[in-house]
Write a structure and sequence with these properties.
heterodimer; A: about 250 residues; alpha/beta; 10 helices; about 40% helix; B: about 200 residues; four-stranded mixed beta sheet; 5 helices; 13 strands; globular; lyase activity (chain B); hydrolase (chain B); Imidazole glycerol phosphate synthase subunit HisH (chain B); GATASE (chain B)
């Protein structure tokens, strides 16, 4: 049985986590490596690091972070942010990243998806898509949802798959931050369109939301940040709940 | 000491990191002479099986590998290379196992690649799974699989179809999943390999 995956997402800047973290017994709440290790011990199936570093020096720190995580953590992880060309991805691969996630760089230059999947295999290439519902249709948005494009989300995701994406990470900007649950109708619809794994993101507020997203949209994985960081949802308890609902988890 | 066949097919950072975590010594095998320094051998590999086979041939190490009597573990594509043929690139492979590596496409209706944590059912006699609970989940990322073989099966995985997630024959072993990314049970499997 293939398990549904639970993925905590950590925002990092200059090698440190930026969103507040509220774990007990954490020596250094800003240290992404320690957090990553804690999550792996709790039963997280995978981790995503979103690098929002702006400076060149910070980027070097991020690469050191990737190396440290790869050395100390025994589950797969994805790193996103700041990947604009093949060379960026290659450095991360050689530093131990299992996957990279690309978002606006792929929208601006779709050929990047082809190039990355040819060079490193599609299993390495996650295409992250931020979507928002505007006047009757779903549109791809950039810059964390602030910049609307004219690209229909469904079309873009199908194109990303055909260009060699290995996985889609779909964030509903309408649900993100609301804690009212995932956008299950949209996720279910997208999941029917593609034949590669789909990761749901945006809206997780409680355990029931994870039950709902797996039962209603049948996505492969669900990602969340703050509910895990603040300890509002504990992964072992979440897994127990999912198991009780008949959802395959590790 | 484990020797890792260094033939340029994929990244071995994760594997060496895992060996460091379990405190198992290792080194790289670049030439025939290097094999003598190690008491067991890992053949890693990600990416395209046909391309990986070509790279392995270029190293000139194939005959030495085939003649090895010490324990050998192929991981992912490194395991597929031990079979006789892959549909990926229609490649002729090492033929340690008289088995074929096949594509999931047109054989299962599920998503491809098979990506994520899947439970596996180990054979009681497979030493790789000693001290690992039944139906443990391991981390898989692959689009090609090894046809199920009752003779050589070490563990069975079901993903729309039963296939061999682990194989064994004499001193040769292979696993389709990534033990180096499969949490503590994956690390236990690597420890088990050091004790075969």
């Amino acid at each position: 049985m293939l398990a549904k995956r639970i993925i905590p997402c950590l925002d990092v800047k200059d090698g440190r986590t930026v969103k507040g973290v509220n774990f007990v017994d954490l020596r250094d709440a800003g240290d992404p490596v320690e957090l990553a290790w804690q999550y792996s011990q709790q039963g997280a199936d995978e981790l995503v690091f979103l690098d929002i570093t702006a400076t060149h020096e910070g980027r070097k720190t991020t690469i050191d972070l990737v190396k440290s995580v790869a050395k100390q953590v025994n589950i797969p992880f994805t790193i996103g942010g700041g990947i604009n060309e093949l060379r960026d991805a290659e450095i991360l691969l050689n530093s131990g990243a299992d996957k990279i996630s690309i978002n606006s760089a792929a929208v601006r230059n779709p050929q990047l998806i082809d190039d990355l999947s040819k060079a490193f295999g599609s299993q390495f290439v996650v295409v992250a898509v931020d979507t928002r519902f505007v006047e009757g249709a779903n549109y791809v948005h950039l810059r964390g949802g602030r910049e609307k494009t004219d690209i229909h989300t469904e079309e873009w995701i199908k194109e990303a798959e055909s260009r060699g994406a290995g996985e889609i990470l779909l964030t509903s900007m309408d649900h993100d931050g609301t804690k009212n649950g995932f956008d299950n109708p949209l996720l279910g619809c997208i999941n029917q369109l593609i034949h590669i794994p789909l990761i749901a993101s945006g809206g997780a507020g409680n355990e029931q939301h994870f039950v709902d997203v797996f039962q209603q949209s049948n996505v492969d994985a669900a990602l969340a940040a703050s509910v895990f960081h603040y300890g509002e949802i504990l992964i072992p308890e979440l897994k127990e709940r999912l198991r009780a609902e008949g959802i395959a988890v590790r | 000491m484990i020797g890792i066949v260094n033939y340029g097919a994929g990244n071995i950072f994760s594997l060496t990191a895992a060996l460091n975590r379990i405190q198992v010594g290792y080194g790289m095998i670049n030439s025939k002479e290097d094999f003598d320094q190690f008491d067991r051998v890992i053949i890693p590999g990600v990416g395209h099986a046909g391309a990986a086979m070509n790279k392995l041939r270029e190293t000139g190490l194939v005959d030495t590998i085939l003649a090895l009597e010490k324990p050998v573990l192929g991981i992912c594509v490194g395991m597929q290379l031990l079979t006789s043929y892959s549909e990926e690139g229609e490649a002729e492979l090492l033929s340690v196992f008289p088995l074929k590596t096949l594509h999931f496409k047109n054989r299962v209706t599920l998503k491809v690649p098979h990506m994520g944590w899947n439970s596996v059912k180990a054979e009681a006699d497979c030493p790789l799974f000693k001290d690992i609970p039944e139906n443990t989940y391991f981390y898989f990322v692959h689009s090609f699989f090894i046809e199920h073989s009752p003779v050589y099966n070490g563990a069975t995985c079901n993903y729309g179809i039963d296939y061999s997630a682990a194989i064994q024959k004499d001193n040769f072993y292979g696993v389709q999943f990534h033990p180096e990314k499969s949490g503590t049970h994956g690390e236990q499997l690597l420890i088990n390999f050091t004790k075969i």
